[in-house]
Amino acid sequence: MSWYPGRTSGKIEGNNGLYMDYPDKGIAMTQGGTPRFKVPTLRNIMLTAPYMHDGSLATIDDVLDHYSNDIKNAVGLDDLLKVNNQAVKMNFTDSQRIALKAFLSTMTDEKVVADIKFSDPFIR
Ligand code: HEM
Fold this sequence. Notes:
CATH topology: Cytochrome Bc1 Complex, Chain D, domain 2
Oligomer: single chain
Number of helices: 4
Low-confidence stretches: none
Structural class: alpha+beta
Bound molecules: protoporphyrin IX containing FE
CATH superfamily: Cytochrome c-like domain
């Protein structure tokens, strides 16, 4: 079976292979099991660097490098990120990167970031 991007897990927490050995186990610290973290929203994702639970990826290109060729075969790595029980390498081409960034940019809500009424909870 080869990896294809049309599948979703529908899970709200997961492990996307940032580390072989996670220093921080995330949700597992209180609930047990393997290291896993909230799957974050992609809303305004182009505006919210740095990325991941520990802010370890500084730019969206670092995120795409991670999914392209740096996913670690961590214990608990989500099945969606495995092929033949190994961490997948998505190996994005340049044009796939451009398309992915264009897609992620569509989730930027210019209004919410520019409207003064969302800037300060004490402004009415
Ligand atoms: C091309 C495909 C993908 C892209 C572009 C992508 C993008 C991202 C981005 C930008 C973040 C960081 C969000 C933030 O810090 O606010 C993230 C985190 C995460 N993603 Fe993905 N993702 C992809 C595929 C997947 C898949 C297939 C899974 C299935 C397990 C997954 C699971 C996660 C998890 C669990 C996190 C949180 C990790 C942490 O906080 O340490 N992602 N993803």
